[in-house]
């Protein structure tokens, strides 16, 4: 199982668009064995240091609680799928 953390902040237009893309493809995420959790750094600023955030949106892909990879910006869904596959098989 791959856990995807979407880190965003209030007033971030790319965060909104990425969120819409992920929501529209939720069934595909599930079929790929991935779960999505959205975290707002405006509401919880400690996440900035915890995840070393320099810009948003950012997607952090974890396997067994360990970060495998991350992607930055308003990426397309193919990039999300590629990151899931990478996270599944990275050693």
Portion of residues in beta strands equals: 25-35%
Largest sheet report: 4 strands, mixed
By DSSP (H or I, 4+ residues per run), the number of helices equals 4
Poorly predicted regions: none
Whole-number mean pLDDT: 96
- The run of helices and strands is EHHEHEEH
**Main structural class:** alpha+beta
The residue fraction in helices comes out at 25-40%
Strand order of the largest sheet: 2-1-3-4
Summarize the entry for a quick read.
The protein is an alpha+beta fold and 91 residues long. The protein has helices at residues 13-24, 26-31, 46-50, 77-89, and strands spanning 2-8, 34-40, 58-63, 66-72.
Structure description:
With 91 residues, the protein is of the alpha+beta class. The protein is 40% helix and 30% strand. The protein has four helices and four strands, in the order βααβαββα. The protein has helices at residues 13-24, 26-31, 46-50, 77-89; strands at residues 2-8, 34-40, 58-63, 66-72. A four-stranded mixed β-sheet has the order 2-1-3-4. A hairpin with a 2-residue loop joins strand 3 and strand 4. The longest helix is centred in the C-terminal third of the chain and has 13 residues, at 77-89. It is globular. It starts with a strand and ends with a helix. The mean pLDDT is 96.
């Amino acid at each position: 199982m791959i856990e995807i953390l979407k880190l965003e902040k209030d007033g971030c237009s790319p965060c909104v668009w990425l969120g819409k893309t992920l929501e529209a493809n939720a069934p595909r995420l599930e079929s790929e064995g991935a779960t999505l959790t959205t975290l707002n750094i405006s509401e919880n600023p400690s996440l900035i240091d915890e995840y070393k955030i320099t810009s948003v949106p950012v997607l952090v892909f974890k396997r067994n609680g360990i970060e495998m990879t991350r992607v930055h910006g308003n990426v397309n869904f193919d990039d999300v799928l590629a990151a899931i596959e990478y996270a599944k098989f990275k050693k």
